[in-house]
Automatic annotation (TrEMBL):
Phylogenetic placement of the source organism: Bacteria, Bacillati, Actinomycetota, Actinomycetes, Micromonosporales
Membrane topology: Multi-pass membrane protein
Protein name, as recorded: ABC transporter permease
Keywords for the protein's UniProt record, in alphabetical order: Membrane, Transmembrane, Transmembrane helix, Transport
Domain ABC transmembrane type-1: 100-311
Matching InterPro entries: MetI-like, MetI-like_sf
Subcellular location: Cell membrane; Membrane
Alphabetical list of PANTHER family matching this protein: OLIGOPEPTIDE TRANSPORT SYSTEM PERMEASE PROTEIN (PTHR43376:SF1)
Length: 326
């Protein structure tokens, strides 16, 4: 319990530091975001309207930095992330809310599937060295080193085309309106197949390699020899003794992967023009939409911290040593 309390306090401090940095970064960037917004409207705004924009974006020149910082925290507790420049006057939370389900559905599902498939195959490859599964290591090593976006480009070149079943870009057919019906959902699934396949192939290979290497290391430990000497079945030794201990490093990697689900696989979403959070961040950087970038960075940071906290809780359940005092 003491370990868990310490970790929670650590993550709360980290969240405070991340939010504070997130507050100061836009104010340290050269330039005036309000003037950039005015340029889009060709300066057709009154002085009062311009002053109101500075207040709306939390850049009131008459207020001190400390008061702006306090107001920023108040807005966060109210769920207010500011207004987006590119989608003005839409709030940042609404823009992120529209893109977030796409990324969670695509990257989240593929990450979880790849973890379970890769971990299972890694256990078999490490426990049955010399088998046909272990012979796939050269291919998995190559695939794990190939960037996501390169596989995406290759998939578009080989599988997409005018008469192909696989669309090369977008999240759904433009003829449909996003809704939970029998027309939109199949279209969304069809458009997600190629980017999902790209992520799955590359990430599965990484999980296989890491789990296989840990299984080989654990299999040489004394407690594995003792378990065999006790007459336990080979399956029980492999799953209850070897795999349980070899899984611990993968739990940390899986937690980080879950955290970065929110950020999405940026280059994959760019290659396929997929309407997720990663593609939204790319557009926000290009348009210098500081409030939107700030909101996306904040959501990604909090997601990574929550995922790491979940990993620590999983460690408590999997490793009894973390539950011991002293």
């Amino acid at each position: 319990m003491k370990f868990l309390v310490q970790r929670v306090l650590f993550y709360l401090f980290t969240a405070w530091a991340a939010i504070t940095i997130n507050f100061f970064i836009p104010r340290m960037i050269p330039g005036d975001p309000v003037k950039s917004l005015l340029a889009r409207f060709q300066g057709q705004m009154s002085t009062d309207a311009i002053d109101s924009l500075y207040v709306l974006f939390g850049l009131d020149k008459n207020a001190s930095v400390w008061s702006q910082y306090i107001d920023y925290w108040k807005q966060l507790f109210q769920g207010d992330l500011g207004l987006s420049f590119t989608a003005f006057p839409s709030p940042v939370s609404e823009v992120i809310g529209d893109a977030l389900p796409w990324t969670v559905a695509l990257v989240g599902i593929t990450t979880i599937i790849s973890f379970f498939i890769g971990t299972s195959l890694g256990v078999l490859a490490g426990w049955r060295r010399g088998s046909w599964i272990d012979g796939l290591l050269p291919a998995t090593t190559f695939l794990s080193s190939v960037p996501y976006f390169w596989l995406g480009l290759l998939a578009i070149y080989l599988l997409a085309g005018p008469d192909s079943f696989f669309p090369s870009s977008g999240g759904y057919d433009g003829a449909y309106v996003p809704a939970w019906d029998q027309y939109f959902i199949p279209s969304a699934i069809q458009h997600s197949l190629l980017p999902a396949l790209t992520i799955l192939i590359s990430s599965v290979s990484g999980w296989i390699l890491s789990m296989r290497n840990m299984m080989v290391t654990v299999a040489a430990e004394d407690y594995i020899t003792v378990a065999h000497a006790k007459g336990l079945s080979d399956r029980r030794v492999a799953l209850s003794y070897a795999a349980r201990n070899a899984l611990l490093p993968n739990v940390s990697g899986f937690a980080l992967s879950l955290g970065f689900i929110v950020g999405g696989t940026l280059l994959v979403e760019i290659v396929f023009s997929y309407p997720g959070l990663g593609f939204l961040l790319f557009r926000a950087v290009g348009a210098k939409d500081y409030p939107l970038m700030q909101g996306i960075f904040l959501v990604i940071t909090i997601s990574v911290l929550v995922a790491n906290l979940i990993a620590d809780i999983a460690y408590l359940l999997l490793d009894p040593r973390t539950r011991k005092e002293g």
